[in-house]
Write a structure and sequence with these properties.
Layout lengths: L1 H24 L22 H4 L12 E11 L7 E3 L5 E3 H22 L5 E8 L3 E9 L2 H9 L10 H15 L1 E10 L9 H12 L3 E8 L14 E6 L2 H20 L5
Parallel strand pairs: 1-4, 1-6, 6-7, 7-8
Antiparallel strand pairs: 2-3, 4-5
Helix pairs in contact: 3-4, 3-7, 5-6
Length: about 260
């Protein structure tokens, strides 16, 4: 009996020693580990771990001198609501926005006449529950731009700001222009598609902040777009037609047109 107990102890000791050897050989492989992280998904990178969405497929074009501007115009149902226009008269917000953009086209036309050698492209996208092209991004043409304003649809549906930003970035990168600007006029929070803050962070990470973003919060609090501060973006608030026109003009006067006059490095 004593011999059997001794033999049993030897067997147990042998098993424990073998398990210890296996643990040392695999460098502690018995410890709990986390799932492997794929390339581009770190907190600072452009992947899902930092934004919650997958990388966005952006066009690749040869870089060339020039400035490209894409304007996103909200045509959701709430743009039917009325606020004061530049003269103080109550009118639907979508009509006031058209008037403001018409004046921007006039300002751009004057600048282009004074700088015929500079490349300046303009595109206009509208968005409600989905995004549509009113003016394909291309070399600025006053008549074509004004005709595009007439094609902006009547307000209807939700507010897909994130999707509109994605389409705007795709147009800008398709142009190949070195300087890229995205302008958005909206009167509400996102109600359709991906949230704009996550889309903006993903696009900023992928492009290293090459695109300058300007939002005008029209008859809505600018606080809804505080996320722009971290993605090379800016937001201004406009409660009526006069302020909307002033904020859009400020963006053009102090950023887009003055930069377009400066030779690219």
């Amino acid at each position: 009996m004593r011999s059997q107990r001794w033999t049993g102890r030897l067997l147990v000791a042998g098993v424990l020693a073998a398990l210890a050897g296996v643990n040392l050989a695999c460098g502690g492989c018995g410890r709990e580990t986390t799932a492997p992280v794929s390339v581009g998904t770190s907190a600072a990178g452009p992947g899902p771990a930092s934004t919650g969405i997958a990388p966005i497929d952006l066009p690749s074009a040869d870089q060339r001198a020039g400035t490209a501007v894409v304007i996103l115009v909200d045509t959701s149902g709430s743009m039917k609501q009325s606020v004061a226009d530049r003269g103080g008269k109550a009118r639907p917000k979508f009509q006031i926005a058209r008037d403001a953009l018409d004046r921007i086209i006039g300002l751009t036309a004057e600048w282009k006449k004074a700088h015929p050698d500079r490349t300046l492209q303009m595109g206009v996208l509208t968005f409600a529950s989905s995004t549509a092209v009113a003016l394909p991004l291309g070399d600025f043409n006053e008549a074509g731009a004004r005709a595009a304003l007439a094609r902006i649809p009547a307000p209807n549906g939700g507010t897909a700001i994130g999707s509109a930003m994605e389409e705007g970035f795709k147009a800008l990168y398709r142009s190949g222009c070195i300087r890229k600007y995205l302008i958005c006029v909206t009167d509400g929070e996102n109600t359709s598609g991906l949230p704009p803050d996550r889309v903006a962070r993903q696009l900023h990470a992928q492009t290293k902040g090459e695109v300058e973003i300007h939002f005008v919060a029209f008859d809505v609090s600018a606080r809804h777009f505080d996320f722009l501060k971290g993605v090379n973006g800016h937001v201004a608030q406009a409660s009526d037609g006069e302020q909307l026109q002033a904020e859009l003009k400020k963006v053009y006067d102090t950023r887009i047109l003055v930069e377009a006059e400066t030779p690219e490095k």
